[in-house]
Amino acid sequence: MSIKFLCIAPLEGGDQVHNRLLLTDGGGASIPCGTQELGSSVFDDISQLHAGEYRTRWPQYGNAGGPRVIGDTVRIQGELG
């Protein structure tokens, strides 16, 4: 298994791109405070998107003819054992 991270450009008619969603072709998650460093006593939980939220977000970012990728793709390869 591997995970590929992409930074995408805004899509016309969609919400502003931000770092608070984790979307895949099979589901998504919300990170309410984002992924930026906020200090030693600030933390955030990752919550699964409900089906309706996912159905709204995926077409905005993942399925509208493909997102326009900005910068380099980062891939993390899993290891067995």
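Next protein, fold it too.
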Amino acid sequence: MNKIVLDLAVTLDGFIEGPNGEIDWCIMDDDMEFDEFLDSISAIFYGRVSYDIWGNYRPDESASGAEKEMLTKIHSKKKYVFSSQPRNDENAAFITGDIVGNVEKIRAASEKDIWLYGGSNLITTFVNNDLIDVYRVAVHPTALGAGKPLFAGLDGRLNLKLVDTRVFRSGVVQLIYERA
């Protein structure tokens, strides 16, 4: 069965955003092989807020060719948005209820793995319902001191098993875990 993969960046002190939503600390190096990750997925799970910010994001004309190519790949994936606010959107399917049942149906029908993009509330819901198979956390060499934490509101302890570690030129360390 295809896997649900949480893949995201976090600061050294555990934040996924700064206090004002900033992510300018996030590094994308070519040695991170993000293209290969994108090739391994067929769909992306978003919370509504994350989708509204990033789900249809288009870079400005000055963006690099690599950034434009990456976003083209991201936008080619099937998008599912988990929200209490239903919406008709030609670029995504909005899911308003029965998260566990809907996730299992989507997973069963998926051709490849599924990227759990976030935001933090959706991540917490997935953790609390044991829906994440792989945790790919890229720890960036920045400490913010405040912001939105990666894990908040967990129902209990989360025990994981480290299966791989990768260190990139930038100093980013990617930790890959599976359920213990």
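About the second fold: The chain has one domain: 4-179.
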